Fold each of these.
Amino acid sequence: MRVDKFLSEMGKATRTESAKLAKAGKITVNGAVIKKPDVHIDPDMDEIKLFGVTVSYKKFTYIMLNKPEGYVSATEDGRDKTVLDLLNDEERRKNLFPCGRLDKNTVGLIILTNDGDSAHRLLSPKHHVPKTYGFKSKYPLSSDDVKSLEEGVDIGGYVTKPCTVSLDANGTGGKITITEGKYHQIKLMLEAVNNKITYLERLTFGNIKLDENLKRGEWRHLTDEEESLLLEK
Ligand code: URA
């Protein structure tokens, strides 16, 4: 791999910046200054330093972000702010994308990664990754409503798979865990029982829980442990 590609993938510099940094003698490979950005390196074997600091190789990046309202789960959008706008430049250079979608007014846990194969696997309907959401509804849900939701409701020609619902004491909210991800699924499910979602927050994605210390709009890298939990098959 070219050293400029490596530095760009690690979020350290754009290709153009790498060319300038190399010319200025700020990049070393195994202790030797390289003057050109097209030098080939083996990221697993070679030690690359930028400004004297080792740039360690990590093939993929996984981020947990607490999505605020008003942001779309896309990499670019002509009109709205995207979840990528919440990252810093270093992360934005890494070609990250949201692993799954939350509606513009849904808040909470979203995973960003550049690991396309794993994202594809996690989002595939075959894998039934459970996702738990906290919700509030316009009207109280009856026990019949809960039963219907849990068994499956028709959301416009598609009957949802079994899910679990637990209600708060007043019945106008609670938690719902689904194992699929149809467009507007939970909103449509509540409409199917003549109700309406007024608030929706994703709390978990598979084995990953939204970090309570992250405020809306904040993000952090997954820990090594979370990374293995996310990727375990
Ligand atoms: N279901 C919805 O209706 N919206 C979301 O953002 C996620 C699940």
Note: The helical segments are 3-9, 15-23, 89-92, 116-123, 143-151, 185-192, 224-231.
Amino acid sequence: MTGRAKSTVGRVDLIGGGPGPIDLLTLRAWRLLTRAEVVVMDRLGPTDIRDHVGPDVEIIDVGKLPGHHPVPQDEINELLVDRARAGKRVVRLKGGDPFVFGRGGEEVAACLAAGVPVDVVPGISSAVAVPQAAGIPITHRGVAGAVHIMNGPSEVTEATLAALRDDSVTTVILMGVGALPRIVSDALHAGVPADRPVAIVERGHHRDQRTTRSTLGSVVVDAGLAGVRNPAVIVVGEVARAGLLLPDPQLAGDIVL
Ligand code: SAH
């Protein structure tokens, strides 16, 4: 043995971490996480991983706060490629699902371009799981038969307006707290009814989860009164109506303003 560093390339696995609790990881994600030599993690998804990996595992937090990116995406890509080239088994732990507004595609492309073996393990997306945690099915027979998922900071497109106008479509907004006033104003100007139900679910699947119920016409004021903050998933549509599943929404601990 010459003591030379391993010359074989390692690998990168992008794993979906789900909405936060570690037991919402898939078994495949768990297996990869517990065998990783390097874990590159985010602000959302499971954050309490130190206890679940060996003491020698390098944990790198590249967590992003809204509007503030401590580690730029190209540096994250570089980090993944460099560690894998050094022969490491790298797990890129991402909140929710890596391919739902997670920039997972960019990380996969960077690994492929560098010739680094890469794979993706799907995760439970907050787009589905956070409404669910508040008792909101994003589809419901006879109520909503289609779902439109949008990224709050993006432009409100015709496709989004069409979804918002259609009372059989659920619109799910991620990263939407800051953009809510603009989205609501665009929607109301485009003729979306002001009484369209809205639910804002903060910190879904965490102990301090909170749901604020309102309507399109009142949600900006109500969100302000409730002091709604990120991370939150905003659901617009009939499925967000209080009492859809539970006759008494107060039982679910909701704020109904
Ligand atoms: N890839 C992720 C989404 C990343 S975008 C996924 O599939 O879930 C980040 C946004 O996800 C946040 O701004 C928020 O809208 C949402 N989000 C993620 N986890 C959340 C949680 N536990 N509670 C509420 N919103 C959450």
Note: Residues 11-121 form a domain with the Cobalt-precorrin-4 Transmethylase; domain 1 fold (CATH 3.40.1010.10).
